[in-house]
Every structure is written in C-alpha cells, then in structure tokens.
Amino acid sequence: MNRIESRTARPRWERRKDARPSELLAAALSLFVEKGYAGTRLDDVAARAGVSKGTLYLYFDNKEDLFKAVVRENISRNIEAGREEAAKFEGHSAQLLRYLIGEWFSRIASGPASGIAKLMIAESGNFPEIASFYLAEVIEPAHALMQGVIRRGIGRSEFRRVDPGLFVHTMFAPMVMLLLWKHSFGPCSSKALDPKAYLALHIENTIAALRPEPQAQPKTSASRATKRRSAGLNRAVHA
Q1: Which of 1, 121, 157, 167 is the most exposed place for a label (fewest CB within 10 A)?
Q2: From CA 219, how far away is CA 162, in angstroms rounded?
Q3: Superfamily of segment(s) 65-210
Q4: pTM for the full predicted model
C-alpha cells in the first residue's frame, strides 16, 4: 500500500480529532445566537458540528460548560489580548481608546459573537448562573480595561477628571445598543445603519467628552493697560 492509500485509509475520527473542539464551539456559537441559551440543544450542536452527541461529551460536560467555552473562546480571550496590548501602548490615551474600541468591533462586534450580548440580556433572569459567569468573565474585565485607560489619561493630563466607573458605563451603552440593533431591530428596519460610521461618531464623542478643558490664559500687562484706558475713557464720557 502506498503512502497516499495509507493516508486515505485513516479513520475519519482520527483525521478530525484535533479539529473537533473548534468545530463544536463554532456550531454552538451559531446555535446560541440563532436560538438563544434555552432553545439550544446539545443534540443540535453535535449534528451541526457533524459528530455524535457522545463525542460532544468527550469535550464538554453539559450545555453550561459548552456556553462558557464559547464565551471564553470568542470574547474573553479578546479582552485579555486588549489588556496586554494596552499595557504596552506608549502613545496618547485617546489613541489607545480609539484603538481598543476599533479592535472590539473588528474582533467581536462584526462577527457572530456579537449576538451573545442580546442572548445575555434576554435570558440572564432565567439563568442567573450564566449571568454571573458573563459578568465576571466579560463585563467586569472589559470595564476594568477601559477604566484603566481613563485613569491613565487622567494621570497624564490627557483627559479631564471624571469618575472612571461611571464614565465606562456611559461609554459602553451605545456599543451594546449597536449589537442589539444588529440582532433585533436592524434586520426589520428599512433604514440601514452603517456600524462603522456609528462607531466612529461614538469614538469621537467619547474622546471629546474626556478632552481637558482649556486653561485660562493669564492676563498680560498690555491687556490690563487696555482695560484701564477703557475704564478711564468711560469715566470721562460720563463726567
């Protein structure tokens, strides 16, 4: 038997063994976004990935375990990457803020993982265990990252003084709304929304809100003399 025949004869499970976890995560992500957490069945995930349900259980204990793996693979690791990049960044804090929001769009918001936000808002009340997980795994690290950027800018006199915690909440709200629009009202609306233009405007508004207020210019001796002359002229006119 030649080498080509030997390679062809390898069992299908052996050829795909390394690919199975990624295939299962991709199938699970698409189904979670399409059907929600409650509506996703492990049988359907396995079928979409092209494996048996028993094979799925070799990698994940249950649906909650699978969902957590989907979130970590598609969202958490990108937040961690942003944290590492922010730690090395040496430029102006406004540039860092612009970069991180842009990367959030390209890595998360522009892909299928953008639908996870809608799922969490819709189903957190029914599944508090995944809500707590998402809060600890996604929301809190993302907020901590952006709060760090704002504190950095304040410390370098690049941003005005604000409450970083409150500001981050107001900064993320339009970003979450963009995701909700994409996966809810957007497909039904006759008016198209350009997500890149929307996000560009949001970034500029955010940076403008953080921009330091211009410092008052000291009064020069010439300007004081001009005011004295003006005051003297007014007295002479009214004498």
Answers
A1: 1
A2: 29
A3: Tetracycline Repressor, domain 2 (1.10.357.10)
A4: 0.81
